Amino acid sequence: MSSKGMNRRQFLHSSGLAAAGAAAGGAVASGTGQKANAADMILTTLDPETASTLLAATRTIYPHETLSDIYYAGVVEALDAEAKGSPDTAKMLTEGAKAMNEAMSVNFVELSPGNRLEIIESMTDTPIFQKIRGTAVVALYNNPLVWRHFGFEGASYDFGGYINRGFNDLQWAGVPSQDASPDAG
Amino acid sequence: MAKYDLDDNSVVVVIGSGAGGGTLANELCQKGISVVLLEAGKRYSAEDFVNDEWDSFGQLSWLDMRTTSGSWRVAKDFPNLPAWICKTVGGSTTHWAGASLRFKDYEFKTLSTYGEIPGATLLDWPLSLADLEPYYEKAEDKMGTTRTHDIPGLPGNNNFKVMYAGAKRLGYKHVHTGNMSINSRPRDGRASCMQIGFCFQGCKSNAKWSTLVSEIPKAEETGKLDLRTESQVLQIEHDSEGKVTGVLYADADGNQHVQKARVVAVAGNSIETPRLLLNSAGGKHPDGLANTSGQVGKNYMRHMTGSVYATFDRPVNMYRGTTMAGIVEDESFHNPDRGFAGGYEMETLSLGLPFMAAFLDPGAWGGKFTAAMDQYDHMAGMWLVGEDMPQESNAITLHDSIKDQYGLPVPNVHFDDHPNDLAMRNHAFKQGSAIYDAVGAKDIFEVPPYPSTHNLGTCRMSENPRDGVCNSFGQAHDVANLFISDGSQFTTGGAENPTLTIVTLAIRQADYIAEQMGKKSI
Ligand SMILES: Cc1cc2nc3c(=O)[nH]c(=O)nc-3n(C[C@H](O)[C@H](O)[C@H](O)COP(=O)(O)OP(=O)(O)OC[C@H]3O[C@@H](n4cnc5c(N)ncnc54)[C@H](O)[C@@H]3O)c2cc1C
Ligand code: SF4
Asked: Measured between alpha carbons, how far is B193 from B106 in angstroms, rounded to an integer?
């Protein structure tokens, strides 16, 4: 089996986004450069160039400035996993990435945000766009590490729910009447 | 737990263990009647439930192949997921939010109240609110519904506080934390709500009523219940007189068995119930079981729905606490001056981040979408749910080529919004937005319907056998020992969330079945 391992540093380097990712800052991005460099991104099927193009495409589709590349890389890993199980998907992703790189005379990852957007917009009816978007909308937002960035606290049962942890701590909208909203029993 | 022979033709077979089937099975067992409860899904418990939206979805949802058609947006966004319902012991009551509202008097008489509406197959129910009141009482007691039986309301969470403030500023009067079948105090051997916030993922504290935590264990205590899990019914069999005699089902290993029965009650939710009747065509019932009216599968309703989410300068953290934490009831009446018939409720709703990404604007991408997601913790949200018009062309039919794992045709769900539904949704979007505007909303998002959670009407009850599939007790017009025991029975949908009424009808149906069995009429 051909396992094309690629460490996240190489990956980010080749993607041309390392600087952007490291500079992004924000809640989960603090010290991101290091985290991203330390983590390994294992690709089983897709080649590095395809992977970096897909990462850039994912970021164009769901742009969160303060979210570092490491989280977008998770989407590429999910796509890679699908490609592993389906030669058709692998072919579609590889050829799609190639087309993105050839759409303008400059590789997709080197393109300006506006140019990237233009290419993605021209692709929205294609299966590869649907595949990237459909995978990303789950893989990107279903990552517990990403939740903190958005202020979603995730599973709460093990912490006793929110009954004593701020389920009604909002102060700015006034206090409902006891009739409308009795105290907890 | 009881164990009955496959040949035992004295048992009542109940198909599906959700709101309708789970309740009916328990009520019959309490009367000493032998029940075989066949449930397609597995049995889980509070410990198994996970506070994780996608994992829970994979654990509890009905994911067998289904197809869609029609102009509703769900057909485009979720072509193989027309409905978000469950395949597990407890059915969709494991998922449900717990809102438990009675229908209003006029909602049982919509044809008389609204008059003929072009394109709509409105019909009065063959029963009235007065007929159901004593059973509503019993259902609320059974389910521990707040604000009934001296049970206090639940405490409102942050999402409710925002809705309350806006609604009051707008002049709405009936705003409170709802009638919820969630314990606000320990009751019936179950704890009170810990405000966990994953009500749609199975309540891990058992505070929320479901047939899984209430009806089924109680039925098991009687020693009369034979619950068979991972047992999917494929066909209902009948004899030369047209009476049903038993059911063919597949067990966990795919082995097929026939369970004989004296009575069969179908409660597979409003897509599987008509599908099963249609898949049971043959012999005396060439067009599908109990289908001389041609109404099996027709008049599919899913409620007018939509959501409004709004962002604010300051945090809300709407996901903390009960998912459906409060209600505005002021629009839930019939006032044709608004430009449509029937009414709608506004109920708080929150989704976790993963589901918000999937449902905020299905298919959306780009900077506008991500800017909205970036404000997730500053968001408040509500769900809009109102009466939709029954239409004959909105229907469950058998797919002509796609088959399921048992080789049976999969159901196709066809739906087009009626102009009345569109006018109501438009009004509801405006009012929902106004509530949030009144408390300083920054951005407001009008969110299209999710896959159907309320599925109704596909075997509707009618006075005249020509107009529907069953009578007011859910007894098939064509087949005396066949009963429809879920939301498929609904003649029209009302504005209210349906489960309390499904449970109410099941309690009433159990009395009727016991009486008819006693009289040897069935
Ligand atoms: C997320 C969500 C939130 C909701 N919130 C509310 C709410 O707040 N208030 C409210 O009133 N309602 C709510 N509902 C709706 C409520 O869950 C349903 O109205 C109710 O559970 C329907 O009851 P039922 O008996 O018709 O079907 P279900 O409860 O869906 O049960 C049907 C059962 O039948 C089984 N089955 C189907 N076919 C077969 C077969 N062939 N053989 C064997 N078994 C079969 C299924 O596996 C399932 O377990 C909600 C639903 C969802 C999904
Ligand atoms: S919020 Fe309450 S009802 Fe909902 S899951 Fe948590 S404990 Fe159960």
From this structure: 34
Q: B218 near B26, Cβ under 8 Å?
A: yes
The mean pLDDT of chain B is 98
A68-97 b/e (C-beta count within 10 Å ≥ 16 → b): bbbbbbbbbbbbbbbbbeeeebbebbbebb
Secondary structure E strands in B173-277:
175-176, 225-228, 232-238, 244-250, 256-260, 263-266
Q: Which residues line ligand 2 (CB under 6 A)?
A: A 161; B 182, 193-199, 203, 205, 207-208, 321-322
C-alpha to C-alpha distance for B166 and B263, rounded to whole angstroms: 51
pLDDT digits over B420-476, tens only?
999 999 999 999 999 999 999 999 999 999 999 999 999 999 999 999 999 999 999
CB B74 within 8 A of CB B452: yes
pLDDT of residue A161: 96
ipTM of model over 0.85: yes
B448 Cα to chain A: minimum distance (Å):
17
- Residue B14 C-alpha to ligand 1 middle, in angstroms? 14
- For B365, the token pair is 């991408």
